[in-house]
Input
Amino acid sequence: MSRRTQAHAVAVPSTPPSQPPRPTRHVETWWRRTRSFVAETFLETLAGAASFHPAASPKRHGVHVERDLIYGDDARWHQLDLYKPISRPKPWPTILYVHGGAFHLLSKDTHWLMGLVFARYGYLVANISYRLAPKHPYPAAIEDTCTAYRWLAKHLEDLGGDPARVAVAGESAGGNLVTSLTLAACQRRPEPWARAVHDTGLVPKAALPFCAMLEVSNPGRFSARRRLPWWVDGMIHDASSSYLHGHAAGVRPELELADPLRVLEDQGRLPHVQRGFDRPLPAFFAPVGTRDPLLDDTRRLEKALAALNVPCEARYYPGGIHAFHAMVWDPAARRCWRDALAFLDRHLLR
Output
C-alpha cells in the first residue's frame, strides 16, 4: 500500500475501537528483542545459579553426566548431554528430552534439571540442544530433533539403553518437537528427515509433551478465546514469527510438522482405514497448569488422541503457570513429576 493510499485509509480503523492501536514495526521489533533478552537472561541466570546447589550434584543422585556429545554435522548446535543412572542395572529405559524456549531461546544447559530428575529415577537421558530461530527457522529445530533421535537409535545399545523402552519428552516448544517426532516415527512422511526417523524402526513407547505449543501457525487462537496480558500474547506471537520466519502465513502442507496438533486432528476425522499411521502411536502424558496461556492446546490434544483411540493422560494442575513443573519446590510441580514418573513406570518399566 502506498503512503497516499494509507493516508486515505486512516478513517477506517484496522482494529476494533476497544483495541489499542498496533505499534509500528520498529516498536514491535524492539519489544520482541527486549522480551527475548529479558526472558533468556533471567532463565539462564536462574538455571546457572541453581546448578551450584548441593542437591544439583549428579553424583549425589547416582548419576554420571557426559556433556557436549556431537550428534550431527554442526558441532556448535548439534550437542547433547547424556545422564546415566550408574547405580541402576543395565539396560536402562531411555528418554530423549527436548528443551523449550519458544523455538528461539535456551538450550540443554538451561534444562539440566530435567535430565537429572529422570536419570535419578533410573532413566538414561539424552538432553539435546538444537538450532534456534529466527536465524534457523522451521524446519531446523524439528530436523535437528530427528537427527538426534537417529543418533540415539544408532548408539542406544552401546550406551546401555534398552531399545524396547524409549520415551520422548519436552516442554513448550520442546513438547511440539517431540510430538512431531512421534508422528515421524509412526507414519511414512514426505520430509526426508522425518522419513529417516521412520526408517530407524525405533518407535517410542511413550510421549510426554509438557505444556506444549502444538499449532505454531495460528498464534492468535489463545487471545481470541480469552484476553491475555499484552506481553504474554507478544511472546506467543514471537514464537510463531521466529519459528516460521521466511514462510508464508497460513496452513501449508510443507509446514505440517510445525502444527502436529492439526495433523492429529485431521487424522482423527478420517475413517480408520484411511489414516496415515502404519505404526501405533504411543501413549501420551500431557500435563499443563490451569493458568498456562497454552492450556487449550493440551485440551485439544486430549480430544484428538481420544478420537484416534490413543491412550492419553492429560493432567491439569490448578493454578499452575507455564512450565510450572520446573519449579520443583512447588507442591504442584512435585505432584506433576510424581505423575509423570508413575506414567513412565506403567508404560516403560513394567
